[in-house]
Amino acid sequence: MLADAARLPCVPTLKERLRDDLTTAMKARDELRTSTLRMALAAISTAEVAGPQTRALADDEVVAVLTKETKKRRESVAAYETAGRPTQADRERAEAAVLADYLPAALDAAEVARLVAAAIADTGAQGPRAIGQVMKVVQPQTTGRADGAAVAAEVRRQLGVG
Predict the structure, then answer these.
(1) What does the DSSP assignment read for the chain?
(2) Could you point out which of 29, 49, 64, 76 has its C-alpha 20 to 30 Å from the C-alpha of 130?
(3) pTM, whole model, 2 decimals?
(4) How far from 37 is each of 24, 56, 102, 108, CA to CA, in Å?
(5) Cα gap 116→120, rounded to integer Å
(6) Closest by CA position to 66, among listed 14, 107, 141
(7) For residues 85 and 52, what is the distance between their CA atoms, to the nearest angstrom?
C-alpha cells in the first residue's frame, strides 16, 4: 500500500508554486516577476504570523492574501493616474497581472447575477433586511473571483434596495 502512495503525484500548494516560480524568475533575471513574487510571499508570511499563533495558510487563505494584494495594486493604479504618474501606474498594472496568474478565473457580471439570483431563490430573501442573509450564501462562492463591492451591489439591485 505504501508503495502505491509513493507513486501518486504530489500536488504542490499555491505557496510552493509561488516559491518555485520565484526561483525560476530569479534564474531568468525577470525583475518584475521576481519582485512581485517576493512581495506576495512576504504578504503570505505576514499573514501566517499574524494572530496569536503562527500557522501555515491553506490555499484558499493564500488566494485571499493574493486577492488583497491585487486590490492594493488596482487602488495604486488609480492613485498614480490621478497624480499624473503613468510609469508607476503601469508598474502596478504589471504587478497585478503577475498576481492574476495565481488567482482563480474571475466571474463576469452575468455569472455574479446568476449566483445572486440562485442565493435569493434558495434563501427566500426579500427586502433590505435580507442583504446579509444573501451575502452569507454568495460570498463563499465568489471569494477571490469577484469584487465584494460589486457582489453586494448586485445583491442590493436584485433585492430592489436603493
Answers:
(1) -HHHHHHSPPPPPHHHHHHHHHHHHHHTT-HHHHHHHHHHHHHHHHHHH-SSS--PPPHHHHHHHHHHHHHHHHHHHHHHHHTT-HHHHHHHHHHHHHHHTTSPPPPPHHHHHHHHHHHHHHHT--SGGGHHHHHHHHHHHHTTTS-HHHHHHHHHHHHT--
(2) 64
(3) 0.74
(4) 11, 18, 10, 26
(5) 6
(6) 14
(7) 40
In tens, the pLDDT along 53-100 reads: 999 988 888 988 998 999 899 999 999 999 999 999 999 999 999 999
C-alpha cell at 41: 510571499
73, with CB counted inside 10 A (0-12, 13-18, 19+), is buried
For residue 65, give the C-alpha cell. Answer: 492574501
Q: For the segment 116-152, what is each residue's pLDDT rounded down to a tens digit?
A: 999 988 888 888 888 888 999 998 888 778 888 889 8
Q: Which three cell numbers stand for residue 89?
A: 501606474
CB atoms within 10 A of CB 91: 18
The full length of the chain comes to 162
> 70, 80, 40, 39: which is closest to 57 by C-alpha?
40
